Amino acid sequence: MTIDTSWVRQEAAALQEQMVRDRRWLHSHPEVGEHLPGTVGYVESRLEEMGIAYRELCDSGLVVLLGGKHPGKCLIVRADMDALPMREESGLPFASQCDAAHTCGHDLHTAMMLAVCRILKEHEDEIQGTVKAVFQPAEENFRGAAKMLESGLLEDPKVDAAVTLHVNSMSPYPVGALSLMPAGPILASCDTYRIEVEGVGGHGAYPAKCVDPISIGAHILVALQQINARELTRDEPIVLTQGSFHSGKAPNIIPSSAVIEGTLRTFDEDLRQRCLKRIEEIVTSVGEMYRAKAAFTVMGGCSPMVNDPGLRSDALRYFREMLGEDMVFEKKEVGMASEDFGNVIKYVPGIQITLVAGSTLDGAKYQQHHPKVVFDEGIMTNGTSAFVTFALRWLAEQQ
Length: 399
Ligand SMILES: [Zn+2]
Ligand SMILES: [Zn+2]
Hints:
The longest helix has 21 residues, at 269-289. The protein is α/β, with parallel strands linked by helices. It is elongated and about 80 Å long. Helix content is 34%, strand content 25%. The termini are close together.
């Protein structure tokens, strides 16, 4: 069935000032990681004010069920809430004063999701199925979605599809525009790993009495490049970056251990698993070859983010009707960055929408995660409208 959603933008616009208040409070109270007591406390009190019931699915992970009065499918709309461990240098009057900052824009996501809950609650009778609004912690370290999945995110009721949205502070498109990346993989998987080389330390003058973990670590670094250079086809792009290598304290001492940390990024789940296996094999066998013990541990990771073709074309159709052709874009390129919503998309079809909160057309200079990044708050009306319109129309069309 079809449903009239022409009223959505006006109702979202009426909540713009409240969204700015919510966003600014969240912005000046940033929290990092899996435990976000202040942020979640704020979201809970705002939901209570609006008379909206919520469920704490796991520590700092909330779920709000909306609709359910008519039988139908269940759609996740998701916001992440965590900040980054860095000092903000935006110069804004409500800038963070602590060692955390909302430089990725998750404060905007959270403020918009509160407005989405409010609008959908007021229009609950029009929801042809159920909307599961999700407030998620720990996106930046890729642990939050996994934790919510383990706690039953996709059950009760069973979820059929999932939509998320991310702001972009330095887009080539106009501020307030919505864009979608291609169908298929759009953001890479990312696994953070640690390699520990255990050698035998001693006097720098007598290497024969030692097992030098620095030299063995160097061999491991070089050997790992062999995966990219010789084991993959041109259709199997990966990025393997060792971002840290620590060992030793003095020029004349052979240390007893070395630690290397890095990340693996791919666009394909099978390729990801294959490469992780090869990294482990190379690490342990190079260690053995040179008489050391080398161990490989994955510290955290997420699957590639994949846009479902059907949901993507539905979104383009709804958004073009809502904002007009010239405010909705199809981006051709995909990114090697990652989004832990990929872990959800592994189980149910989904899409990620991009909302332009800063444009190079207006001279935007800073990408997300930069200490000086500034987001245009006015875009929250369009982001909220995108979620609400997608949810109402898509659920109705599934009837
Ligand atoms: Zn980020
Ligand atoms: Zn982010």
